[in-house]
Amino acid sequence: MSEKYTIESYLSMELLRFTTAGSVDDGKSTLIGRLLYDSKSIFQDQIDAIERISMRKGEEKLNLAYFTDGLKAELEQGITIDVAYRYFATPKRKFIIADTPGHIQYTRNMVTGASTANLAIVLVDARKGIIEQTKRHSLIASLLGIPHLAICINKMDLVDWDETIYESIKAAYKEFASKLSIRDVHFIPISALKGDNIVHKSENMPWYEGTTLMYLLENIHIANDNNMVDARFAVQGVIRPQSDKFHDFRAFSGRMLGGILRQGDTIMVLPSGFASKIKSIFQGEKEIKEAFVPQSISIQLEDEIDISRGDMIVREQNLPRRSQDIEAMICWMSEKPLASMQKYVLKHSTKDVKAMVKSIQYKMDINNLSRVPDSTSLEMNDIGRVLLRCTSDLFYDPYSKNRNTGSFILVDEATNVTVGAGTIKDTTI
Length: 429
Fold this sequence. Notes:
This protein is 18% helix and 36% strand. The protein is of the alpha+beta class. A six-stranded mixed β-sheet has the order 2-3-1-4-5-6, sandwiched between helices. A six-stranded antiparallel beta barrel has the order 7-8-14-11-10-15.
């Protein structure tokens, strides 16, 4: 490994997770392929393989979309069906890309890919402007609390690099987005096919004075995206090696979902309410003084407390909300509609509880973001607000405050299929 990418420097790099969204044929896969190709993040054997596929399909040029469209059906149809994850790095940052589908019937896949993203790239075809899928994906990005949006107005080469078209689409999107909870939006005119404003500055659009997409990805500030105030540690399991070296070792493994915990801190264990102090914190076999979101760690306490999977360690003076009744926005993912009084398994952090849908408050109209009252069910890909009753208390924060402790999924108990993804709202019953 070269000096440019030593193991130490790579591990210490900041990680940006981003997702792509947009309608069918807006150029999402081509955009990702262009990012990888122009940033020299693709090995030569991969380029050779894609060249062979492009030639076999009778295409004159290298089809960059094939770098992400890996399924046989995707290559045959020229569309994205499943979420495709790609990893690459530049000297400034590491990246995980989730290339998500554009078809309406794969909206649930888009939710999956966007659930952990710091940034969403929403592609808009310059010829079509803002369409229903643009609104749908923007609404999902808003509901999922993605902190940053990059609105890439693609295919500018097909509208003769016209500034007025770019400005009109930008104005239309700003008017629509004013109704959403999106705090940081950037607009970039691009041509994914030709590479304009992707990695290199476009010479065809001298009127655009902003940054390239790669510059934005490398430099956008994400350090404050996580909740660093409210300490939340979700217990996944108990570590007891029972070896000669660690004869009396007993620690609780899990992931930091929020805030910071340090050795010596006084903590409370939920739901028992017992208090103790942190004796030591380990990351792997290395003992550390403090841990913060999103680290996976193990914690030793000074007192022997009965703790198991699903419990949560917090600070005494900073407790999460506690309730069996929650109000949430749901993106429905099942062909079988959601209806009132149905029962599911609700998975929240490391805790599983049974839950029943008490009522459906309303369904969202994607086109104008209005509420459709008196809705009796949610069909697949519908988004609506529901009231749920759980068989035991959940310990949570509103999603707007903490994405990790404010989200959950619903699972069909009979089939074990994930049928819905939810974000907990501020209002409680």
